[in-house]
Amino acid sequence: MLHAVIGALALGAVMTLGDYAWEALRLRHRVGYGMAHGALMCVCVGAVIGSRAGRVGLGTAAGPFVGVAAAGLFYMLAPAMRYSAMFPAWMFFWICFAILQAFLQRDGSLKGAAIRGIVAAILSGLAFYAISGIWTEPQPGGPNYVRNFLSWSFAFLPGFVALFVAARRGDRRRGEGENVFSRT
Question: Is residue 56 part of a domain?
Fold first, then answer.
C-alpha cells in the first residue's frame, strides 16, 4: 500500500507541475503538447511501477510508449467525443500499465494482468471523473494548485492500489494461469 500512496503523491506533484506549465506558458491545447505531457506523465508512472518491481530503468523506459499510445487514442477519439475521450484513454492507460507490471515482475499471467488493469481502470476512472472539474469548471483567477495536487493524487491512488494489492494476492497463487512473462 505504501508504494501506491507514494506513487499517487508523486504523480499528483508531476501532474500539478504540468498544470502549472500549461497555465504559466499559456499553452493552447495542441496535439504535440498533449502527447509530450502524456509521455512525461507515463515516464513517472513507469518509474513507480518499475520501482516496485525492482526494475525501475525498464519501467521508466517503457512508460512513454504507453503514454504516447494512450494520448494517441485520446486524439483519435477526441473529434467525436471531445474531452470525454479522456475516459477511454485513461482506461487503456491502466490496462497497459498492468500488463507492463506483470512483464516487469515476471510472475503473472496475462489474464491476471488484464483483470488488474480493468479493475485499476474502473476504480481510477471513477476517481478521475470525480476530479474532472479541475478542467471543466476552472477556478476564477486561475488554477488552485493545492486542489489540483490533491485531485491528481486522488485520481491515481485507486489505480496503483488495484495494481499493487491485486498483484501481490492474485497472480502469485498457483493455478492463476500460465505465466506468459517468464519466457522473456
Answer: yes
State the Rg of the chain over Cα. 16
Q: Tell me if 49 sits within 8 A of 101, measured CB to CB.
A: yes
Cβ-based neighbour number of residue 138 at 10 Å:
12
177 found inside a domain = no
Residue with cell 486561475: 142
pLDDT of 172 reads 47
Can you state the angle between helices 31-53 and 86-105, rounded to 10 degrees?
Answer: 30
The amino acid sitting at 28 is R
Per the CB < 8 A criterion, the answer to whether 3 and 144 are in contact is no
Single pTM value for the model:
0.82
Q: Is 33 exposed, middle or buried (0-12, 13-18, 19+ CB in 10 A)?
A: middle
Task: Specify if 182 maps to a domain.
Answer: no
Q: How many Cβ atoms sit within 10 Å of the Cβ of residue 84?
A: 12
Half-sphere exposure of 164 (CA within 13 A, CB side): 21
Angle in degrees, 0-180, between the axes of helices 145-166 and 2-24, rounded to the nearest 10: 150
Coil, strand, or helix at residue 109? Answer: coil
Domain hosting residue 33, numbered range: 2-171
Euclidean distance between CA atoms 109 and 40, whole angstroms: 28
Q: Is the pLDDT at 31 greater than 90, yes or no?
A: no
